What we know:
Elements: H1 12-31, H2 47-50
Amino acid sequence: MTIKVVRGNPTPEELAAALAVVRARAVAAAALPSGAPTVRDAWSDPSRIAARRVPQPGPASWSRTYWPGG
């Protein structure tokens, strides 16, 4: 694997940090069985928001637009 810096002038410490992250991800990916299903986090599941009612129009409806639990 080749990593190339295409912009900027990173310090040796910044390069070491970036390589540590890349290597850690590669090791973690290699440790998973090839057919293992990935688990999605609940907060990223769009059905948790779609399952709730849509706020009804009214004077305070703007405040509930992004807070479906409110």
